[in-house]
Each structure stands twice: as structure tokens, then as C-alpha cells.
Structure prediction request, 927 residues.
Amino acid sequence: MSKALPKKIDPKIENEIYKKWESSKFFNPDNLETADDRFWKAEPFSIAMPPPNVTAELHLGSALFLTLQDIMVRHARMRGFKTLWLPGTDHAAIATQNVVERKILETEKKTRQDLGRQELLRRINEFVSQTRGHIQNQIRKMGSSCDWSREKFTLSPELSLAVRTAFKQMYDAGLIYRGDRMINWCPRCGTTLADDEVEYKTVKGEMYYIRYPFKGGENFLTVATVRPETMLGDTGVAVNPKDLRYKKFVGKILMLPLLNREIPIVADDHVDPEFGTGAVKVTPGHDPNDFEIAKQNGLEMINLYTPDGHINPEEATDHGFDEYGGLRAEEARDKILAELESKEFLEKTEPIEHRVGVCYRCDTVVEPMISKQWFVGVNTEFRIENKEFGKSLKLSEKTTLKELMTAVIKSGAVKIVPQRFEKNYFEWMKNLRDWTISRQIWYGHQIPAWYCQNCKAVIVAIETPTACGECHATLMVQDEDTLDTWFSSGLWTFSTLGWPSSAKTREGKPSDLELFHPTTILETAYDILFFWVARMILMSGFLLGDIPFKTVYLHGLVRDIEGKKMSKSSGNKINPLEVQAKFGTDALRLSLILGNTPGNDMKFSETKVEAGRNFINKLWNIARYLISLEPSPLAAVPTIASGEGRGEGPKNLSLAAEWIEERLNIATTITNQKIAAHDYGSAADELMKFTWNELADWYLEIAKIEKPKPELGKKILENLLKLWHPFIPFITEYIWSQFHASLLMVEEYPTPAAGGKSQITNSKSQTQFKHLQELITGLRNLRAEYREESKKILASYVELPNSLSWIHDYSGVIERLSRTKINFAKMDEDKKMPYFFWSPYGGSPEGGGESVKVYLIIPNFDPKTEITLTEKKLTETEDRIKKLSSQMSKRGFLKKAPADIITKMKTDLTSAEARAEALKTKLKHLK
Prediction:
């Protein structure tokens, strides 16, 4: 028997419901066959959860991705797919080591060198064992229906094996190499960074114009630079070969100011003739372009800096700038500028805005420098083993990783949602350089390369070698560096499914890798399209000869109400756990989904969550009412989604009942269409419109007057709970449990009823109900316009034509909902009373359409007073329109004003114009 719902929702239901889900074991796709026959031999659906870092609590961005993925997963499971959502956590090497090192330094005044590698790793592992469990609990709190039995950690033994295997295979194919290259160095993190880990921001600085004297002469060449301190490492000056100003100087020798070092003038296309004077200093050790210029022209390369950002004393001694050795870069700059000025080498300075690269983790200015590192060669050719895969991408038998990554998207093998991000992807691919994968930290996957101390051979192996393959010596030392975290994350879709050790089958069944890979969809933020998405395509393409996923869904960033990025330093960061405790998880999920569109940033505030909670309460009260109609079990009622009797429902329905059945079917259709198109925000919007506007505000209000058939209410409630379940799982599951022993999470998701009206049509019931709505709404609006309190019952008059005689049957409904006593009679037009045009035939009298006048009788109505008030409002509104129009016409304002301010002004202008037209119509009626 059904239970009456309590008046208020108990927050404790969330923990109880999640325990119920977990104990059912239906998060595990292997167990779904016991839930329902439709899961027998069902098609697979799989998502690999982007593993959150183990270093910190989840933030609102995490809450968003967990909500979106849970919607996808719950919908797929209810649709009958063998659904796997595989969770995990990422060791986040640099961030995690930094957190632990900082804590040790603060409490013990010790560095990692003081502790040693093994002790530091022990401390980090102890820290991770605590934070990892905390992260898992937060994922549960969001209602995430992931398979915890398959949960993975990027540093677990089986995933470490996958990393070593991948490194070995790529090394053997010539795709991984070690060499001296220009890299990005973060002095704060003390490690290299890949190109896409460097963010660029515009800063204010100075352009310095420095005179470089010609050898043996009195003339000089003026060189412009924003980094005068790096002149210590200059080994040339470059000009563009097409720059006629300097053509005659190419090949001449200059003397480096202060150091008196001879440096040649070279010509190179990398030089921008418009930058500064058109002559630039060449510092090959600290600029990517200068590095290429030096290679082309045989210039020496000097590495100026130590890893912590000081002038390298050894290089200073070797190249004659001992007095600067050991200075920080800023100190060296000040000293050099003072000397340049005193010796009249500094011609002038100019303020300038220029871009600098900063570490995406700590915002420290990144130093380009030459270093011996491990790289993945994106332009190195390799042979595609899976010929069918290569053929499907229209690639040659030999290709490069860059070509492969480009072809996967260009061919449509992997689709990006929204599609506009494909342009960003291709632009990045065009400029892609070799990927630096070694990191100078201790926590992470240690590079599986050993150096023979006897013959200096390099041995790359999956397991620790016992002897050198070249000289058979046993003394070998493993490379101290670890791998970039994104290297292991790039394997995530298949290393988590057992690669490389899983057998093709397990106990006569397909292995996880065979069954669930490629995964169905990857859902992640657009800002890691290149950090992660591209690398997963790279790894899967080479190692498996396959794509890692079929679709990439990119969500936007969650910003504060003013559109600013959330951060601790800004003081606008919001903890989702605090929001959940205050409003409930379903309310938080709803606030993150409503209005959300793929790839677009969203503004967040507690006001949105409060609105979400209000809807949850509304749904609760709807359920309370529908359940109270009859105490019999709802399970016995046919539903739209059920196989037998689909679409039949109760007979002899009233107009409102017929209308709501059709609206439910239409909402079901649109919701399914929106979800299929990955437009989850619009799907929730559609359900909200149906639940609140159509069901609660119209049908239920009429139902309370008409005394509805309980069967229809039960049918609506069942389908409503199913439709909403992926979005707000806790409340829907709890309500369902009051009249069902089964779990809602494995019920069949509603689809349009066979033979039902699945599109918005002009059916008789919809057309008639629309006329009824317009009549009631018109009367309500008229009351509000003339400030009549809602409790007062007024008289109304409407002369019905014969074609609308059916309206008589609904006079009780009209009177109750409009709070009027309706008279179906002609109104004496000599009496000046407010009226509106009701247009059941379409159109309006102003547009030449046929309509009916509906009058509202207001005691002691004074048309003259109303005319005066209305004219005043019209004047105020027209003044507002002029002011907004004037602002919107100023080009300077449109260029400087933030986009959201301009959007709001456009909305305000449109609203004011509509209001002015309504006031003009009102005046016309009054006069």
C-alpha cells in the first residue's frame, strides 16, 4: 500500500537512498541482468570518470561534471543499456608533492632533499590514503551512480604496469626519445611543463633599446628587448632577410655590451620587422624562436639559469659574467640596466604591454630553457598496426601522431560537442610541438629507463632489468625523473579496463576492455581539451589502434554571479558540500543543469540553488497530492513507458485530463530528443515547464475542482518521477519507494506512447484547453493591471459565439481560477469598464483577426483616473527607452562594456518597448 508522504522532506533520505543503491549492486553493469530482462545481452554504455586530483576537496566544477555524467549514466541505464561509469582518482604528481613538501617545510623546516626520496614518498602516500577516501565520499554525496567495484587510482600497480608498457612500446617505435631541447621550466614547481601547461597573460612592462657596437668601429645597432637580463646569454643578433634596413649588415660582427663578446648578425624569417627596431638579440638558451635561429645559423647556446631561477655560476665562469653568478633574475636585471645606463648603452625605454607565459598551476612566470628531457615525438613516423583503423581515418600506412590526432576528429570518428571546439582543436594541432613528458619530481610514475654505469647504455624496460643488454653489467641506475601526469591520464579509458594484462575473455564472457572500449562518451571541461582529450586520442590511437571514445562533451566553467572565475584568492569560491548541507543535493544538481548549455560558462549563486530547492518542494507537494487521491498501490496502473497497454490510460477523460496526457507525451518526446542531442539543460527546462507550469499550475488546480480519476494521477506521477530521475535522483527515488519495492534507477525510461501525440499538434483537446487558458489568464492579468486584490470576487462578461458554446461547461473552472462571477452575456458598452481581446480564432483586432471582448466589472471604476496613471507610466517607460537606446547607440560604450551588461541592456530595452506597446493599447481601450 502507498504511504502518505510527510509534509517536509527529511535531509537524511539522501544517505539512506545512496546506501540502498549501493547495496543493490546495480551500479555494477554485471548485475543489471538480475534487475530486468531487458538488460539481458544489452548494448554497452560506458564513461570513464575524469579522475579528480587527490589533493583537495571537490569544487563546483567537479559538482557540475559529476551531475552531467550521472544524468548520462542514469538515463542510459534506464534505457536498458549495460551501463558502466568507472570512477577513479588522479595522483596529480606536482600538485600533491607540492602540498606535502610545503607542509613538511612549515612544520619541520625540512626539504625533500633532507628527507630523501623514499621517506618523502612514504609521507605522500600516507597523505593520499586520507584525501583519496575523502574525495570518494564527496563523489557519493553528489549521487554519482558509478561502479565502485571497478574504482581505479592512477598510481595503482595495474595502472603502473600500463604506463610502463605504453612507454616501452612508444620507445621501441621511436616515438619516445631523450634529448636536449627547449622546454618550459617552472622555478616554483621545480619541473618542466608541457606547452599546454603554460598559460599566457598580458602584462605591463618596458621595452629597452640597447646599443650593440660594431666590432672595430664607432657605430652601433640598436636592439629592442623586454628581457635585458638575458643578454648575458646572447650569441647573436638577428634581422629579417627581407628587411632592407639591415641587409648590408648581415654577416657583420657586433660586440655584446658589458661583456665585450663577439656576436654575429644573422638573417632569419623568425624575426618580426615590426617588433622594436626590427633587430633582435638571440638568446638560444631561453627563447624557442632564438633556439631555432641558433640551430639554423650554428650559434652557441648558453644556459643562463639554475632550476630555482638564479644565474648559473658555472655558465657565468665559462662565459665571462662571474659578477652576475648566483643572482636572481630580477637582481641581475637591475644590475645590468644600471651598468648599461652608466656606460651609455641604454638608448631609451618605452612602456609596453606584452604576453608572458605562466605556470597553469602556480602562476609563476615560466622560463624557457634548454634541458635534456624525455619527449614524445608528434612528427615522428610510425606504422599503424590496425590497418582498418588507419583506413577509416584515411591515413597512410605510415603516419605521425599529429596526423592521427587530427584525422580522428576530421573524419568524424570522434565527435566534439559543441562542434565549434573542433576549430580550437585543429588550431592547436597545427602548432603542436613534441610533448615533454619528464618531470623533475619524485612522486609519480618513475621513468622506466635505466643507465648502465659500465657502458652508458640506456635500457628501457617494463620490469626492472637485472643486467645490461649491451655489456651484461649489473650496475644500473634508474632515471630519477617521473612522467608527466597526463601521460598516465592519457591511458585512462583503457588502462582502467585491464590493458595490457586483461585476457580477451573472462570465464567465457568478453573482457571489460573488449566490452566497454571505446567508451561511449567523454564528458569534461573545455579547458582540458588539449591537456587530456587530445592525449587520450594519441595514446589510444597508437597503442590500441582505436579511438578512446565516440563523443566528447565539453562543459563550460562555473563562475560567480558576476562572471568571475572562482578561486580562494578572490574570496568567491563556494564549497559544494556546504551548499548541499543547506539546500540538498538535488537542489544543487538542478541549479547546475537548468540553463546550462554545452561549452558555455555559467554563473552560479545560492539564489539559483534556492530556486532549485523550491522546485524540489513543489515536486514533493505534487506527489503528496497525487498519492493521496487513493490508497491503492500505484504499481497496478498502466504507464506510458510500460510495454502492455502503452498509451491506453483512463477512459472518459475531461478536457483538462486529455490535455495533460498529451502534454506529458509531448514533454516525454522533447526530453528524450534533448538528451539524445546532449542538451541536458534544455531537457531539464522542458521538464520544469511541464511540471510546474502545466501540471501544477493548470491541471492540478483544475483537478481539485473536477475531482479527477486517481488512475490518471498515478500514471502521471510514475512517468514524472522516471523522467526526472536522472536529474534529481534522491527525491524521485524516495517518492517512488513509497509505492514500489523496486528501484526507480533501473526502471524503464519513458518514451512517447505508441499512437500518442508525440509532437505539438492542434488536437481538439489542446486547442480548446489553450482557449480556456487564455480566457482565465486574460481575466487574471486584467485584475492585476487594475490592482484588484486576488481574494475579491468580481463580475465578468463575455458574449460567446455559438462555436464556443462548449465554454459554458467550464464556467465553474473559469470562475474558481479567475476569481470572477462570469456572465455569458452582452456587456453594455456605454459603461466604461476594463476589457481585453480574447482571440480563440487566432490573431487580434489590431491585426485584423477575429476576437471576443471580455469585460471585468470593477466597482467605482474611474476611467479618467486610470488614463492619468497610464499616461504617466507610458511617459516613464518611453523615457527609459530613450535612455537605453541612447546608450546602446554609443560605439565607445559597446566596445568597453562587459558582454553581460550589454545583454542585460538589450533585454531591458526589449521589455520596455513591449511595456510601452501594452500601455498604448490600454489607453486606447480606456478612451
The CA atoms of residues 781 and 818 lie 9 Å apart. The longest strand covers residues 198-213. The chain has 28 helices and 33 strands.
